[in-house]
Design a protein that fits this description.
The complex is a heterodimer of chains A (637) and B (669).
Chain A lengths: L1 H6 L13 H5 L48 E2 L5 E3 L10 E2 L2 H9 L23 H8 L3 E3 L2 H5 L7 H8 L9 E4 L3 H14 L2 E5 L19 E5 L6 E5 L4 E5 L4 H10 L2 E2 L12 H7 L6 H4 L2 H4 E8 L2 E3 L15 H4 L8 E8 L1 E2 L3 E9 L2 H13 L6 E5 L1 H9 L6 H17 L8 E9 L1 H17 L3 E2 L2 H14 L2 H7 L2 E11 H21 L5 E10 L3 E11 L6 H18 L18 H5 L1 H14 L17 H8 L1
Parallel strand pairs in A: 5-7, 6-7
Antiparallel strand pairs in A: 1-2, 2-3, 4-5, 8-9, 9-13, 10-14, 11-12, 11-13, 15-17, 15-18, 16-17, 16-20, 19-21, 20-21
Chain B lengths: L6 E3 L9 H6 L17 H9 L2 H14 L3 H15 L5 H18 L2 E5 H10 L5 E5 L6 H11 L6 E5 H4 L4 H7 L2 E4 L7 H17 L4 E2 L18 H11 L7 E9 L5 H9 L8 H10 L6 E6 L3 E2 H4 L21 H20 L2 E2 L1 H15 L5 H17 L3 E2 L4 H11 L4 E3 L5 E4 L8 H6 L7 H17 L3 H16 L2 E2 H14 L11 H14 L3 E4 L2 E4 L3 H10 L1 H17 L1 E3 H13 L10 H13 L3 E5 L4 E5 L1 H14 L13 E2 L8
Parallel strand pairs in B: 2-8, 3-6, 3-7, 4-5, 4-6, 10-11, 13-20
Antiparallel strand pairs in B: 1-2, 7-8, 7-9, 12-13, 14-16, 15-16, 17-19, 18-19
Helix pairs in contact in B: 2-10, 3-4, 3-10, 4-10, 10-11, 11-15, 12-20, 16-17, 16-20, 21-22, 21-23, 21-24, 25-26, 25-27, 25-28
The chains are: A alpha+beta (637), B alpha/beta (669).
């Protein structure tokens, strides 16, 4: 082992050794003082220090064994389900229809006590040698605490959750380090190169591809680089509508700071409460409102990335450049395998004066789909436009809170109108939700046009409230998986992008395939549902939700993964992609080469060889293999 | 400098019946420094700064750091801009011009300008910002360039002025209206003010098509010679170039030499520790009365314009700073080093443009007479001055006057309260008046409290030294070479080594550029050999036979070397000492010994302490309230030995000197 450490200590980075300024000025920091960063250079500096919602000890605020905030979760019970806490609109309210829906659709037994895991007390010993730990401590705060390491060993895949709840990860990181600046990251990467240990960049931990999950076979020490202390806004140019931000900032902090100043980034993936800017870049993220603000690749002007071979950064801040392949695109979607994104320059927009929700009801999926296609053809998409299938529509109804009499009455009237007068079949109808932004005039104009197109496809307006509910539930849906697991249901979502002409067939085929797979395994209580969440000129994004009761299954996670794999095979056969925005990670490696072609895979390997020849960022995502003991020995011979 | 520079008295045409009024009320279409599509008003400038991305960003950061409201900070920026911002009111300028000319005539001043340089400069204007960087020896400097620009139809310079003037009733406002902008002396502790100033200066340079004028030395040099430059203001003014907002910046070094400084007596007192009176309009009016006197000539010598772009060899390398919004771009450490280099270089250009006046030469002669304690007859005096003219020309100085006799007569009138011919037509220095400082004054004294008797002797001699100082930078290099050789004959290498060390120790007292030293040394050595100050055989340098020149060289640096040695002695004893205490202790030590009175100068002592720091004999640390010096014993010991070995020995009685004449009747306070 020591030989392996020593042999790679020749110069990887040339600008590090001689700068021991921080070594002298290092302060003893505690977990409590996250927002008390050293104030040097604070004078006449343009840096806006952001106070993050999430503390350095994430487990103090966030659920260690599942999604989101500790105080927010679904609870099923005999007298009706609830959602706890007061962070979301349904927080603290009774959900009278949810339990029944769960019983009917997934065979849940709400009388049974939920299985809540006990907080782990034993952890794998940290393998980080003492001298290296001391060296790292001179750069930034380091922890080898078991819990700190455990909660950063994973993302949010079903397998992650299952292993987390049973504390059965084959490998967890050996230490966590919190750099505060690009310069500190450079030092950390240099240290890792010198001593040949593994670095895993960790932002919000919301990955659903296994990308951030600790590689099981890795023998070298693994240090997680938690970027959450790198969350300052370095500068903000309201004229140019640009901001340079440290990559560790989480979405809600970024958006809150921008809104407080009259601006918005407008990038809102469903995870944006917890996911980070750097994470968005590394996965090629997509946000709900991409029609107005663009996906991450449209938002980014510039990135700065520390690789073991130095820093990649374009030398100019320009709107476009014709200069060979754009290496920003090597960074975007690199899934942590090449280095750490430290700073990002991105576009910001003035806050829209009017935000208006809307909804439309269509008699069935197909008419809803043709409406979406037409809207895209005419490029009339509002900030967000989504089509939910009937299962999701009904699930949405199940999440309705107790209403006042007037509200219920009104709902009743609407339903009467839609089902009796318009003759829509309640078991077939689909809903489109709309989010429109702009000046009052623009919004009004747009709504009029959308309604006109909807009318052509048999759709009728169903009010702003339905639309708004649809969007506010977005962030709550992620909590469902936790309660599902607690009642023996495994569930997960997966998504794809597909050309318009193949969309309808893909949706039908995938649903059919999942049903067949369930039937083959004797699974009768399950849910398969989809929605169309993004539209483009050339196609759309389809999002599937699948969950099943595990009562009849011996290895629920494995079974689920088999079925999802079958579904993905079907997707790809139908002309869909490996992923629209979740990324490849470790879960979808199987389809990577086929997707990018063999020369494409070689190109990726070549990039790795150039940027990270010693595989410091040994995440083994996409086409990269996990590095076990044997490979190290081989490479050293 | 060549001697063929043609100086023109630009006040001459105004000395007619209606010369002032018609000139000041003429239709005036000045040459701007830049041709632009749209010119900014002075209000536009302030608005641009207040709305700049830079200040917005600073405010955002400041407000998230301190929790203060943005409106409040915006208002603060607005207030700062009102405080610093320049204005331009043509009628004020015209009336000020009338006033200025009236005073000039009252002071019987002639204002000599090397017209050719001004006209060349003017013909090249229009493409990029222009900086006027004059020497700063007197408050009068503020008006001179502005008047010069009016005379030559160049737009009024925006002049950086200290806050001292801001608080003066009426005058503060009038100065603003003639293009002055105000800056606080210290930017520490108020980041928002610093940011506002930075952006304002940058905006004025980049967007206001008028020359920018400020004093590199940061303050009036009380010693009438060059001081090491301050870098802050130059960094701010050059920023538009480094941000590529402008293509080039033209830097014009300007030397302003005075036959007589209005402030010379105040300066003499300041050297000895009596603080300067606060600037006030009342004081100004009082001073006006004393201006009804002869002040002689002022020489404004514009140096060759320096193209920043050429100086940096068209360096278009760019830094990561380009990735920032242009408003937020800051100097990189490397660029700051370049700014420092430029500042140092410009100071040497100012020195090269020094006009040695008869005032200077006569003072040299009188000082030498004091040193020798020997009176000079008028004819002898003229010969001596002529000899000085020759020697200084040999040393590369430009001496404008050719008719020595009439010039000496003129200067004797100008300086009649400092020196005069006695009844036997021998030149005498007029003694000071014994005044007891009040206890109030004593409390304000900056250094050691000197005895009244010391002050009486010292004040006139320090004052005289002020006129010797401007030409010392010509004399110092050969003087030091001579002093080293007269210790004992030595090789060129050893000579150069000792010269280098001693120059470093005196680097603040005699400002020079390290990189020019090789050249300066060679020239000075050649000069010494050619003039038979020293001679060489093979590689051995020994004394030559020109004893007259040797005598001049011997005493010229005597005060500086004495101060240096005493400072070294005191610091060796103290081993660790605050700056203020060090000044007091050195001054106290010097008072008790028979030394040249200029040694008592606090400025000279401070320069010597800085020199010891530069040479590594002291380490300068930032203490809680004051700078603290820590001794480096080995280096200090070596330095002391070196200085001691070359220090010439003189025994001059300044208190009872034949050359000094006691004229109780004349009071100059």
């Amino acid at each position: 082992m020591s030989a392996a450490f020593a042999s790679s200590s020749d110069s990887k980075m040339n600008n590090v050794e001689n700068d021991n300024r921080t070594v002298d000025s290092v302060k003893k920091k505690s977990f409590g003082d996250k927002n008390k960063k050293n104030d040097t250079n604070a004078n006449s500096s343009t840096v806006i220090k952001v106070k993050s919602v999430i503390p350095r000890r994430r487990q103090d605020l966030l659920k260690w064994y599942g999604w989101g905030y500790k105080d927010s979760m679904f609870k099923l019970g005999e007298e009706g389900a609830t959602f706890t806490g007061n962070r979301y609109s349904i927080g603290g309210k009774i959900l009278p229809h949810l339990s029944k829906w769960a019983i009917d659709n997934l065979g849940v037994d709400p009388t049974k006590p939920p299985t809540i895991p006990k907080i782990p007390t034993t952890f794998a010993e940290s393998r980080l040698p003492e001298p290296i730990r001391l060296e790292l401590e001179k750069i930034a705060l380091v922890s080898v605490d078991g819990m700190d390491r455990l909660i950063r060993a994973h993302g949010q895949t079903l397998k992650d959750m299952s292993q987390l709840r049973s504390n059965s990860f084959p490998r967890i990181p050996d230490a966590v380090i919190w750099p505060e600046s690009h310069e500190q990251v450079e030092k950390i990467v240099s240290c890792a190169s010198r001593h040949n240990f593994v670095l895993i960049p960790f932002g919000g931990g919301t990955s659903v591809s296994g990308a951030v999950t600790c590689p099981a076979k890795e023998m070298r020490p693994i240090v997680v680089v938690d970027t959450s202390d790198m969350n300052s806004i370095l500068w903000l140019d309201k004229d140019q509508l640009l901001a340079k931000v440290q990559a560790g900032i989480i979405g809600q902090d970024l958006e809150r700071e921008m809104r407080a100043r009259g601006f918005t980034v407008g990038h809102e993936p469903d995870s944006y409460e917890f996911s980070t800017l750097g994470g968005w870049v590394a996965t090629r993220a997509s946000g709900m409102k991409k029609n107005t603000y663009g996906n991450i690749e449209d938002l980014i002007v510039q990135t700065k990335v520390v690789t073991p071979r130095g820093v990649i950064e374009k030398s100019c801040r320009v709107p476009r450049i014709s200069c060979g392949p754009d290496f920003e695109h090597i960074v975007m979607g690199s899934e942590g395998c090449f280095g750490i994104v430290t700073e990002v320059t991105l576009k910001i927009r003035p806050l829209p004066p009017v935000v208006r929700y809307g909804s439309l009801v269509f008699p069935d999926w197909e008419s809803g789909f043709h409406f979406e296609r037409e809207v895209a053809r005419q490029r009339l998409q509002p900030s967000s436009i989504r089509l939910m299938d009937n299962e999701q529509f009904r699930f949405g109804q199940a999440l309705k809170t107790e209403n006042t009499w007037g509200g219920v009455l009104l709902d009743g009237l609407k339903r009467l109108y839609i089902t009796k007068i318009k003759g829509f079949d309640p078991a077939k109808l689909c809903v489109v939700t709309l989010l429109m932004e702009g000046s009052a005039e623009e919004v009004k104009e747009r709504e009029k046009k959308l309604n006109a197109i909807a009318a052509k496809y048999g759709g009728i307006p169903a009010g702003a409230t339905n639309g708004e509910n649809g969007y506010t539930l977005t962030f709550v849906i992620a909590y469902l998986r936790d309660v599902a697991i607690e009642y023996d249901v495994v569930a997960e979502s997966f998504e794809t992008s597909v050309p318009w002409d193949r969309t309808l067939a893909l949706c039908a085929n995938v649903k059919r395939r999942v049903r067949d797979e369930c039937a083959r395994r004797g699974i009768h209580k399950y849910l398969i549902s989809h929605r169309l969440t993004q539209t483009y000129d050339a196609g759309c994004c389809i999002y599937f939700y699948f969950g099943h009761n595990t009562a009849q299954v011996s290895d629920p996670v494995n079974t689920y993964e088999e079925i999802e794999e079958a579904a993905r095979d079907e997707i790809i056969a139908c002309g869909g992609s490996i992923s629209h925005h979740h990324g490849v990670g470790k879960l979808r490696k199987k389809w990577y080469t086929d997707t990018v072609s063999e020369p494409g895979r070689q190109l990726l390997l070549a990039a790795k060889k150039t940027l990270d020849p010693d595989n410091i960022f040994a995440l083994a995502n996409m086409a990269f293999e996990e590095q076990g003991n044997e490979t190290i020995v081989k490479s050293k011979l | 400098m060549s001697e063929h520079v043609n100086f023109v008295d630009i006040l001459e045409p105004r000395r007619t019946q209606s010369g002032i009024f018609s000139f000041m009320s003429r239709n005036w279409r000045p040459q701007r420094t830049m041709v632009m599509d749209k010119y900014c008003s002075t209000q536009d400038l302030k608005d641009i700064v207040a709305n700049s991305v830079y200040l917005d960003s600073i405010i955002e950061a400041e407000c998230s750091r301190t929790g203060l409201s943005k409106e409040k900070l915006h208002q603060e920026v607005r207030n700062y801009l009102e405080e610093m911002g320049l204005d331009k009111k043509m009628h004020v300028i015209r009336w000020n011009g009338v006033f200025f000319l009236k005073i000039c005539f009252m002071m019987k001043i002639k204002m000599f300008v090397n017209e050719a340089a001004v006209l060349t400069l003017k013909s090249k204007m229009g493409k990029n910002p222009v900086l006027f960087l004059p020497t700063h020896r007197s408050y009068a400097d503020f008006c001179l360039m502005t008047y010069l620009c009016y005379h030559y139809d160049i737009d009024f310079p925006a002049v950086a002025a200290g806050m001292d003037f801001y608080s003066m009733a009426v005058i503060g406002r009038r100065m603003r209206e003639t293009g002055a902008f105000y800056i606080r002396r210290t930017l520490a502790g108020d980041p928002l003010y610093a940011a506002t100033l930075k952006q304002y200066v940058r905006t004025v340079v980049g967007k206001h098509a008028v020359p920018i004028e400020f004093f590199l030395e940061g303050t009036r040099s009380r010693s009438n010679k060059s001081m090491p430059p301050k870098y802050g203001m130059l960094s701010m003014t050059l920023m538009p170039f480094f941000a590529h907002e402008v293509n080039d910046i033209t830097i014009v070094p300007v030397n302003i030499s005075y036959d007589r400084l209005m402030e010379h007596s105040l300066f003499a007192y300041e050297h000895l520790g009596v603080p300067k009176p606060k600037e006030s309009t009342g004081g100004f009016l009082k001073a006006l009365r004393s201006l009804n006197d002869h002040f002689g000539n002022i020489y404004i010598n514009l140096g060759a314009p320096l193209s920043l772009r050429e100086y940096l060899h068209n360096d278009t390398s760019h830094s990561k700073e380009t990735l920032k919004p242009v408003d937020l771009q800051q100097l990189t450490p490397d660029q700051f080093k370049k700014v420092q280099k430029i500042a140092d270089y410009v100071i040497t250009l100012q020195q090269k443009n020094t006009v040695a006046t008869i005032s200077n030469l006569l003072s040299l002669v009188l000082m030498q007479s004091l040193m020798k304690n020997r009176l000079l007859e008028y004819e002898e005096l003229i010969q001596e001055v002529e000899w000085m003219v020759q020697e200084l020309r040999n040393l590369g100085a430009s001496v404008f006057e050719n008719d020595v006799r009439s010039s000496v007569d003129r200067i004797l009138v100008v300086h009649r309260s400092m020196m005069r011919l006695d009844k036997d037509r021998r030149l005498r220095l007029i003694s000071g008046v014994l005044t007891d400082l009040s206890s109030e004054d004593k409390k304000k004294m900056k250094g050691h409290i000197l005895q009244a008797q010391t002050m009486v002797v010292a004040v006139p001699i320090v004052q005289l030294q002020l006129y010797v100082n401007p030409v010392l930078h010509y004399i110092a290099p050969p003087a030091l070479i001579y002093l080293i050789v007269q210790r004992q004959a030595l090789s060129r290498d050893k000579l150069r080594e000792d010269y280098r060390r001693i120059r470093k120790l005196l680097s603040h007292e005699f400002f020079h550029l390290e990189k020019d030293e090789e050249n300066t040394f060679n020239k000075a050595l050649d000069y010494c050999i050619q003039n038979r100050v020293i001679s060489n055989s093979g590689d051995l340098y020994s004394l030559g036979e020109d004893t007259k020149l040797q005598y001049l060289l011997r005493w010229a640096t005597w005060p500086a070397l004495t101060t240096l040695l005493k400072a070294a002695d005191v610091m060796t004893q103290q081993s660790s000492c605050g700056h203020k205490l060090a000044l007091k202790l050195v001054q106290q030590r010097l008072e008790s010994e028979r030394v040249h009175p200029y040694c008592l100068s606090l400025e000279a002592i401070a320069n010597c302490l800085s020199g010891l720091v530069a040479a590594g004999a002291l380490v300068k640390l930032k203490g809680d309230q004051d700078i603290v010096y820590e001794l480096v014993p080995d280096v200090m010991k070596e330095s002391t030995i070196l200085v001691n070995s070359i220090l010439p020995s003189f025994s001059v009685d300044f208190a009872n000197n034949f050359v000094v004449i006691d004229d109780k009747a004349i009071s100059r306070l």
